Amino acid sequence: MKNIQIEEAKKLLEANGYQVANLWCVADVQGKFKCTDKEALEILESALTNDATMEQIWFAIDFHAEECGLLEI
Questions:
Q1: What pTM, to 2 d.p., does this model score?
Q2: What 8-state DSSP symbol labels residue 71?
Q3: Phi first, then psi: what are they for 47, rounded to 5°?
Q4: Is 72 contained in some domain?
Q5: How far apart (Å, rounded) are the C-alpha atoms in residues 59 and 66?
Q6: pLDDT at position 18
């Protein structure tokens, strides 16, 4: 049941313009470190919102958009 709910949530987000092909969850952190769900979520939030990560994402967006011939506005 939980997997069906997750897939439905992903479909809703995708229908509203969100990229959902690459999502991270607490299990990703817990596969490498012994921690609680709360600690793992805090690690994910920090890792995915730090300046270096955000700069790399914007760089990749620019790179791929230019590669596809999109014009910057």
A1: 0.78
A2: P
A3: -65, -40
A4: no
A5: 11
A6: 97
Residue 44 resides in a domain: yes
How does pLDDT run across 1-33, given as a tens digit for each residue?
Answer: 888 999 999 999 999 999 999 999 999 999 999
Tell me, yes or no, whether 49 lies in a domain.
Answer: yes
What was the pLDDT predicted at 19?
96
Half-sphere exposure of residue 68: CA atoms within 13 angstroms, side-chain side? 9
List the alpha helices (DSSP H) in the chain.
Answer: 2-15, 26-30, 37-49, 51-67
Give the Cα separation of 70 and 73 in Å (integer).
9
Domain membership flag for residue 73:
no
Count of CB atoms situated within 10 Å of the CB of 30: 15
Total residues belonging to the chain: 73
Residue 58 is part of which domain span? 2-67
What is the residue type of 34?
Answer: K
User: How many domains are there within the chain?
Assistant: 1
Evaluate whether 26 touches 37 at the Cβ level (below 8 Å).
yes
